[in-house]
Specification:
Layout (H helix, E strand, L loop, with lengths): L1 H25 L1 H8 L5 H13 L5 H10 L9 H48 L1
Helix pairs in contact: 2-3, 2-4, 3-4
InterPro entries: UCP028770 (IPR011223)
Keywords: Membrane, Transmembrane, Transmembrane helix
Protein name: DUF3302 domain-containing protein
Length: 126
């Protein structure tokens, strides 16, 4: 008789631990978002509860979503924008250098063209 009640108590205890364990695990992305002052923490919290009803399909994506934001750098695109700006500045510099080289080549070819025509005329006269 005692073992029946003990087994029933253990069953209820294990069910409660599993139930609350699932809830705690599904709140991990929300806790991460809350620590990082994520701008979408409410949406992450609601999506965590929705994930309970979708057989945990959304949960890994919520984890990723919560960890992408950091208060010191936001989504992390500032460095990418700086690098892109630096690349554009470098491309503009190279474009200007190519334009200068083209003008110098054009000047040199104009200076050599009269000399070439003079040497051709001298060879014809001989």
């Amino acid at each position: 008789m005692f073992l029946d009640y003990f087994a029933l108590g253990m069953l209820v205890f294990v069910c409660l631990v599993i139930f609350y364990g699932i809830i705690v695990i599904h709140d991990i992305p929300y806790d991460i978002a809350k620590e990082r002052n994520h701008p979408h923490q409410d949406a992450i919290h609601v999506a965590g509860w929705v994930s309970l009803f979708t057989l945990h399909v959304l949960w890994p994506f919520l984890w990723i979503w919560a960890t992408l934001w950091r208060e010191d750098r936001g989504w992390g695109f500032h460095k990418l924008q700086e690098e892109t700006h630096d690349i554009h500045v470098r491309v503009d510099e190279l474009t200007q250098q190519v334009a200068m080289l083209k003008t110098e080549i054009a000047k040199l070819s104009q200076n050599q063209a009269p000399e070439a025509s003079e040497t051709a005329q001298e060879e014809e006269q001989k």
